[in-house]
Design goal:
Chain lengths: 228, 245
């Protein structure tokens, strides 16, 4: 479970987050909605420990992020898959290598097992024959899919998505939305999605919050049945 | 930023990049890539530079010496100048211009496109993944390049002295061989190791803290090269004071 407690963040005189609190329970996806520039990405990066809050705490299964030593933070991050808004793929690596980088770094798996896992991920994201391509050869939607695949590599229980459907055509948008729902329902992944796409948010989210003027407000609880 | 805090940040950055578990299985391949990138990649430029350093050193040294001191002094002067100063310093200039800029551009682009954040989120220490291989790669490649430069520059000087300046080979050889001091070669190589550390750390440091998109990356590249050159000049002076007085 992730608990966000009274998080504040200012950039100079500009108040970005003003006492944000909410929880993400197991097998639940929390969606943070809000217009561009309201601090959704900042909030997600604070929860992931990439940006330090001015005050407030983030708890993962009861343990405060700001009390963790660097090694503990690295261990925690193996439990989180992060999908970046711009995909943040490594330009010099192929799709296969991008997906396999965390496996290469953190496991002692034999070559066959690594290949099997990467192949499995490529099939999940629907790109089984694109493993040799480099990011420059991919469309925006495909890059997003590879970003999702990379986040899945170590099979983390939490997935964080930063604007997963922004700038995509309707077909790709619905493909990614369906993938996120599959991860939630079939693979029991919890997570946080920040987006300004209300349509996807309603399908994905177990809980919806609106972030506006630094404050967060719960919109509604969406029952899984609604999508089904 | 005061000079003291800048030096502190630079030192801290270097310490964070080196004093970490190296994980040789993962890091080794990237170190080898860097050795090839820096070493083989710089070879044509270094070769060109070494030939002309040798030519110019022979002509200018002879201009200053011939007629005032015995001819074998030309051999002594050429070897000492190349081994102690020109070899390490000019090679470091080439590597600073070529590799420090490439490191700053590559790491800076990764910073502004969130690739470094992505490494962090995959629990991969970016200091180990990005900086350590570049620092180790430069530490290995630069001294090898310096030896190559010295060899080519000395051969080029010998040929210039014999065929252009008409200095007898026996005189030249006497100066080169009989007055060769191993400390000159070792001192130059130790200097090269420090230059390598300064060049790689500058390139990685300014790339790592780049911000502000393409313009920010451009600034990082400029700062990396300028800082490398200033540090090479400064360390060269300190080294001369400590070891060659």
């Amino acid at each position: 479970m992730i608990r966000i407690h009274e998080v504040h963040k200012n950039f100079g005189n500009h108040i970005v987050l003003n006492g944000i609190s909410f929880e993400v329970t197991d097998n639940e996806i929390v969606v943070i909605l809000g217009p561009s520039g309201t601090g959704k990405t900042v909030l997600l990066k604070i929860i992931a420990g990439l940006i330090k809050p001015d005050s407030g705490s983030i708890f993962f299964d009861g343990k405060a992020l700001d009390q963790m030593v660097p090694d503990e933070i690295y261990e925690l991050r193996k439990q989180i898959g992060f999908v970046f808004q711009g995909s943040a793929l490594f330009d010099s690596l192929t799709v296969y290598e991008n997906i396999g980088i965390a496996i290469e770094e953190h496991t002692n798996w034999k070559r066959g097992k690594k290949q099997e896992r990467i192949k499995q991920i490529l099939e999940i994201i629907g790109m089984p024959n694109k493993h040799r391509l480099r990011p420059k050869d991919l469309s925006g939607g495909m890059m997003k899919l590879v970003g999702i695949g990379r986040a899945l590599a170590l099979d983390p229980p939490y997935l964080f998505y930063d604007e997963p459907t922004v700038g995509l055509d309707p077909i790709m948008k619905s493909r990614i939305t369906e993938l996120i729902i599959t991860f939630r329902d079939r693979y029991q992944k919890s997570g946080i999605v920040v987006t300004h796409d209300l349509e996807s948010a309603q399908l994905i989210g177990s809980k919806l919050y609106m972030l506006k003027s630094g404050k967060i407000q719960k919109i509604s609880t969406i029952a899984k049945e609604k999508y089904e | 930023m005061t000079l003291l805090s800048a030096v502190g940040q630079f030192g801290l950055f270097l310490a964070r990049s080196i004093f970490i578990p190296w994980k040789l299985r993962q890091t080794g391949k990237r170190v080898i890539d860097q050795i090839f990138e820096i070493g083989i990649g710089s070879l044509p430029m270094v070769l060109f530079m070494a030939i002309f350093v040798g030519l110019t050193t022979a002509i200018q040294t002879s201009y200053q010496m011939i007629g005032t001191v015995p001819k074998y002094f030309l051999g002594i002067a050429i070897s000492r100048m190349i081994l102690i100063e020109f070899g390490p310093v000019f090679t470091a200039f080439v590597v600073a211009g070529r590799s420090a800029s490439a490191m700053a551009a590559e790491i800076g682009t990764m910073r502004v496109t969130e690739q470094i954040d992505a490494l962090e989120m995959m629990a991969i220490n970016p200091y180990r993944y990005l900086n350590l291989p570049r620092i180790l790669g430069t530490l290995i490649a630069l001294p090898v390049l310096v030896v190559f430069t010295e060899l080519i520059a000395i051969i080029s000087s010998i040929l210039t002295s014999i065929y252009l300046l008409k200095v007898p080979f026996t005189d030249l050889n006497y100066g080169l061989i009989h007055h060769f001091r191993f400390n000159d070669l070792a001192g130059g190589l130790v200097k090269a190791l420090f230059f390598a550390l300064l060049i790689a750390t500058s390139g990685c440091f300014f790339g790592f803290y780049a911000s502000g998109g393409a313009k920010g990356v451009g600034k990082a590249v400029t700062r990396a090269v300028v800082t490398s050159l200033i540090l090479i000049f400064a360390f060269d002076f300190i080294n001369a004071l400590l070891f060659f007085r």
